[in-house]
Amino acid sequence: MEIRYFAWVREKVGCEAEDLDVPSDIQTVAALIKWLVSRGENYAEAFADEEAIRVALDQEHVEHDARITPASEIAFFPPMTGG
Amino acid sequence: MPPIVSVTPKIVVQSNDFDLTKEVEALTADRTDVGALVSFLGLCRDENHSLEALELEHYPGMAETEITRIAKKAIERWPLQGLTVIHRFGRLRPGEQIVLVAAASAHRQAAFEAADFLMDFLKNHAPFWKKQHFASTEAPSWLEAKQTDEEALLRWNK
């Protein structure tokens, strides 16, 4: 699964993007976050304030209960500050 | 009243600067039916000489896609004759242009409202993030999203 990080989520995780073999029982964004957090302190720190984490699935905004597949492109980022 | 001819918005995400006059002229070139053109220009602001630069990070691909989604909603909602949105990314100095929204219509209300709508949704939904770099030795910091910006979207639900 291709996972991308932006802004302070990227800085805390420590990379821009990674292609991870996510277990097949991980089927929602929320479950993916839990799984990532279990992988290390950097993820735990990036996702500490889960409410603040925005998610895009295949470049479209979704909520944390959205369903994901191994072919998905998932992006995690803070609330946006463009304009 | 729905628009008779469907309008294709011009959406650009780039690091380069843009020319406001040229963009506005392009919306009215070779036509005489435009009665109102509203342009909004967002600038890199430094309130007390503390800012060295703003670093704008974006999600390439999604930035264009999301702005296009917002622009299409505006086109469905108001009888627009033309719509241009340009958003820059990269390191910008105080005073530099960040974003342009220009909406053309036969009448002013549609042009004003569409531009306002575009900016409200751009701020909340377009994947851009601003990091402040200070002139002093203060550590750089990410700008926090404002609750008021999110609340501003509610008025468009009416």
Structure, described:
The complex is a heterodimer of chains A (83) and B (158). Chain A has 83 residues and is of the alpha+beta class. Chain A has one domain (2-77): Beta-grasp domain (Ubiquitin-like (UB roll)). Chain A contains three helices and five strands. Chain A has helices spanning 7-13, 29-37, 41-46; strands at 2-5, 17-19, 54-57, 60-62, 73-77. The longest helix of chain A is centred in the middle third of the chain and has 9 residues, at 29-37. Chain A is globular, with a radius of gyration of 12 Å. Chain A starts with a strand and ends in a 6-residue tail after the last strand. The relative contact order of chain A is 0.29. Chain B has 158 residues and is α+β, with helices and mostly antiparallel strands. Chain B has a single domain (23-157), classed as Molybdopterin biosynthesis MoaE subunit (Aldehyde Oxidoreductase, domain 3), CATH 3.90.1170.40. In chain B, 30% of the residues lie in helices and 32% in strands. Chain B has helices at residues 20-28, 62-77, 108-125, 147-151, and strands at residues 10-14, 36-43, 51-58, 80-88, 90-92, 97-105, 128-134, 141-142. Chain B has a four-stranded mixed β-sheet with strand order 1-4-6-2, with helices on both faces. In chain B, helix 2 (62-77) packs antiparallel against helix 3. The mean pLDDT of chain B is 95. The A-B interface holds A 4, 6-8, 10, 56, 59-61, 75, 77-83 and B 42, 56-59, 61-62, 65-66, 87, 98-99, 119, 122-131, 142-145, 150.
